[in-house]
Amino acid sequence: MTTTSNNDIARAIYLMFKDKSSSEQKNISEKVVKFLFRRRLLSKAPDILSRLKKIINNADGRLEVKISSVEALSHQVKTHLEQTLKKRYLVKEVVLKEYIDKKLLGGLKIEVNDEVIDLSIKNKIEKLQEYLIKV
Amino acid sequence: MNSNTIVENLKKEIDNFSLQLKVEKVGQVIEVFDGIAKVSGLSDIKSSEMVTFPNGEVGVALNLEEDAVGVIILGDFSKIKEGDEVKATGKILEIPVGDSILGRVVNAIGAPIDGKGAIKASKTYPIEKVAPGVVTRQSVDQAVATGIKVIDAIIPIGRGQRELIIGDRQTGKTAIAIDAILNQKGQNMICVYVSIGQKDSKLRKLGARLEAGGAMDYTVIVSAGASEAASMSYIAPYAGVSIAEYFMDQGKDVLIIYDDLSKHAVAYREISLLLRRPPGREAYPGDVFYLHSRLLERACRRNAKYGGGSITALPIVETQAGDVSAYIPTNVISITDGQIFLETDLFYKGIRPAVNVGLSVSRVGSSAQIKGMKKVAGTLKLDLAQFRELEAFAQFGSDLDESTKKQLERGKRAVEVLKQLQYSPMKIENQIVTLYALTKGLMDDVSIDKIKEFEQGLIEYSERHAKTFYKEIKESKMWTDKGEVELKKVIGDFKMGFSK
C-alpha cells in the first residue's frame, strides 16, 4: 500500500520547519494548513499534530511522561523520578505530566509513549486476583 | 474443607505470591468491527503475539502496519470500545494442555465448553510452531487401522501420514472420520477431533456417539462453532494440533481430524478481507496455501532418538458438485499424502462408504500396510480395476465370453464386500479372512444378495475354527502355509452348511 501515513506527513512537516526563521515558519504554517485542507486531511490533524509533537520531542531529546497517582506528588519524588527516567530512556529532559486518579487506590502509574510501568495498588490487587484464580 | 482451612490456604498462597513488575507495552483501540480491532501504539509487537483487552478478552496481532496493528479478537468483541487499553503479552498465543484434557470438549483457546468444570492444565503450548525438521523424522511404516475395509485394504493409512477425505456434502466424510476414531479403542492411539464451523447440533450428536462407543476416553474434541467468530475457526485447527503435539511429545501416537478445512479457509478469507489484505483467486488471500501447508506439515512420525510418537492427520475438505479442481481442494490435495474421494453417485447407488476407489490414493500408506493385508489387497485392487473397465463396456454387448463374465461377477462381489455399515468397524484379521475368500474366488458361487450374510457367517465361523490362522496374523502379521490350509478348509466347511 502506498498511501501516505499520518506519520509521514508529520515527519514532512517537521523537516520543513527545521532550521527556518520565524517569518518563514509562519509562511510554511499557512501552506501546511492549506495542504491539509486541499487533501481533506483536516480531520486527521489532531493525530498528525500529536505525532509531530513526538517527532520534535524525540529530536530535542525530550521525553513526555504521564504520571497518574492518587495524590499530588512531592517535589522530592518528582526529582527522583526525573533522574531515574532520564537514565532509563537516555534523554536530556523529562517533562512530567501529572494526573490524579483516585481509582488507582495507591502507588503510581508511569506512562512513556506506549510503555506502562504500573506500580499502583489496583494493578497489584488485580495481579493477585489472577494468581489466586490460577492456583 | 471448613472455612478456617480455606482462609489458611489463601493466606499461604498470598504469602507465596510475588509480584514481578515489568514494563508493559500498551496501545489504544482505534476502531472495532466484525471481530477485528485496529490498535495504535504497541510498538515492538511480534506477529501472532497475544494481546489482552480490559474485559479479559484475548486477541492476536496479525497485521503489523506503520502506525496501527490489526488484531483479531478471540471471543466476544461487543464490549470492546474505542479508546480501550490493549496490553501486549510478549507471548505467542498459547493454549493450556494436560493429560486431563482427554475426554473433554474445548473451544479454540482451550477453555472447556462441555460443562464438566475446569481442566487442570500442566503446561501451555504455543499454537503456532515450526513443524519437526527432517532429522527428527522417520518414514511411515506402521498402520492406522480404521476398521473400514475399503480404506484398510486399498487406501491404507500409516501413522504420521496426512490423508485427505474429500467429497461433496452428505457423502459420509465425517462418518469415515468417526468410524476411524471408534476403531482406535485399544490401539494405543489418542484422537483429536477438530470441528471447524460446524453446527452445534452435529457436534452434540457426534460427542454422544463417541461417548456411547467408549471413544471419549482417548479423544479430545476441539470445537469452533458456526456461531462463534471467524477468528475462533481460524485458530481451532492450530489449537488442535498443539494438543496433539503435547501427546506426541510423550511418545504417543495421535490421530487428528480437521472437519473441515474448506470452512477454515473461508474463515481465514473473512479475516483477511476485513484486515484489508489483497484478495487473490476466489477472493482467498495469497497465503492460503501456507495456511494449510504449515498446519498439515506438523503431522509427522518422529524417530526414536527424538522421542518417537506420531501425528496422523485426516483433513476433510468439502467440494461443490464434485469439483476437485477448485482452489482449496487442489491445494490440500497437493499438500497431503493421498486422498479418499467420496462420490454422491456411489452414495445413492448404495455403495457406502461411497469411496471412489479409482480416484483415491494413498501415497505412503502401502509401506505401512501389514503383510497379510497387502497380499489380499493386491489382487483386490486388480479385480476392481478390471471390473471398472469392463463394467462400462459390458453394458452394450450381451454376448460376453466366459472369462469376462467371471471377472464381472468377481467385481460385483468385491463391491458388495467393500460395503460397510456406519459405526461397524471391522478387525483387521476379519478383513483379511473376508478378502481372502473373495480374492481366491471362494465367493464366486455365492449369489450377490447373500454376500453380506455369507461374510457375517464366515467371520463368526472362522473366528471359532481357524484359530491358527488368526494367531499367525496377530503375531506375525502374515499367515504361513499351515494357516492358509486351515483357513481354506474352514471356508470350505462353512460353505457346505451355507445355503447359497
TrEMBL record, chain A:
GO terms for molecular function: proton-transporting ATP synthase activity, rotational mechanism. Keywords: ATP synthesis, Cell membrane, CF(1), Hydrogen ion transport, Ion transport, Membrane, Transport. It comes from the Bacteria. It is found in: Cell membrane; Membrane. Its main location: membrane. GO terms for cellular component: plasma membrane; proton-transporting ATP synthase complex. HAMAP family: ATP_synth_delta_bact (MF_01416). This is ATP synthase subunit delta. It comes from Candidatus Nomurabacteria bacterium GW2011_GWC2_35_8. The gene is atpH.
TrEMBL record, chain B:
This is ATP synthase subunit alpha. SUPFAM superfamilies: C-terminal domain of alpha and beta subunits of F1 ATP synthase, N-terminal domain of alpha and beta subunits of F1 ATP synthase, P-loop containing nucleoside triphosphate hydrolases. It is found in: Cell membrane; Membrane. CDD domains: ATP-synt_F1_alpha_C, ATP-synt_F1_alpha_N, F1-ATPase_alpha_CD. It is an enzyme of class 7 (translocase). Keywords: ATP synthesis, ATP-binding, Cell membrane, CF(1), Hydrogen ion transport, Ion transport, Membrane, Nucleotide-binding, Translocase, Transport. One of its GO terms (molecular function) is ATP binding. The keyword ATP-binding applies. It is a peripheral membrane protein. Gene3D superfamilies: 2.40.30.20, ATP synthase alpha/beta chain, C-terminal domain (1.20.150.20), P-loop containing nucleotide triphosphate hydrolases (3.40.50.300). ATP binds at residues 167-174. InterPro entries: ATP_synth_asu-like_sf, ATP_synth_asu_C, ATP_synth_asu_C_sf, ATP_synth_F1_a_nt-bd_dom, ATP_synth_F1_asu, ATPase_a/bsu_AS, ATPase_F1/V1/A1_a/bsu_N, ATPase_F1/V1/A1_a/bsu_N_sf. NCBIfam families: atpA (TIGR00962), PRK13343.1 (NF009884). Belongs to the ATPase alpha/beta chains family. The record marks 360 as: Required for activity. PANTHER family: ATP SYNTHASE SUBUNIT ALPHA, MITOCHONDRIAL. It catalyses: ATP + H2O + 4 H(+)(in) = ADP + phosphate + 5 H(+)(out). Residues 23-90 form the ATPase F1/V1/A1 complex alpha/beta subunit N-terminal domain. Its main location: membrane. Residues 369-494 form the ATP synthase alpha subunit C-terminal domain. One of its GO terms (cellular component) is plasma membrane. Residues 147-362 form the ATPase F1/V1/A1 complex alpha/beta subunit nucleotide-binding domain. Produces ATP from ADP in the presence of a proton gradient across the membrane. The alpha chain is a regulatory subunit.
